[in-house]
Amino acid sequence: MDRQDAFRQPPQRHWLDPLARRVLRAAGVLPAQPRPAAPSPPRRPALADPAPDRVEQELLAMKLRQNPQQPFRDASELTLAASLGWRLDVNRAGANDWERLPGLTDKQRDLLLRLQAGGVQLSGPEDLQRLLEVSDEQLRTWLPVLEFRWYGAPAPAGTPDRLDLNRATAVQLQALGLAPERIQRLQRERLRQPFQDLADLQQRLQLPATLVEQWIGRVCFGNGPVGPVLPPGPKR
Fold first, then answer.
1. Which of 15, 37, 156, 228 is the most buried (most CB within 10 A)?
2. Each residue's pLDDT tens digit, 146-168
3. What is the model's pTM?
């Protein structure tokens, strides 16, 4: 081996000082020192996706800003509306408010408005359920947004008994608190045309709201009396 080959022979490690190793690498005798890998940049934490309820709430809020009278489609939208602060005051709500409730019929809406116009108030969810004869499921759908504010005297206590006012006898009607003159008028009116509901009864007999409120959940309205109600004959 000549001196030139010996010079080109890669030297053993650790006997050259750092400056000599740099010269030999530059001359191609030693392999280039691998560059250290650049440190990876710190990974940014992934942004959490917004909660689905939050997204739905913001979408509903946007829709309500565009159309404040937009009807609600189902129970989930009513729950979101309640979280946004929307409420329905049962004893002061107008037609537009009632029409926003999913599942409420036109007949039920008209009944509520007519009773409200007559001064009748509902004291709680039970009154509303009995009056409209809706299922427990339907009532639960509405509950998140319903408010029962009482305007005036305390709400009367109810009773589950239901008396058909289109068939009730004079004695039964008297137990409801009707005076004899109103009992006779009620009997004449239902012969002419059976009462449809409490609002119809109140308007035709011009009954005070405080009296009608006591009958919520206690009375119902069938097809009408079996026959004419005749006054008792003279005693012999």
1. 156
2. 999 988 755 454 445 588 999 98
3. 0.57
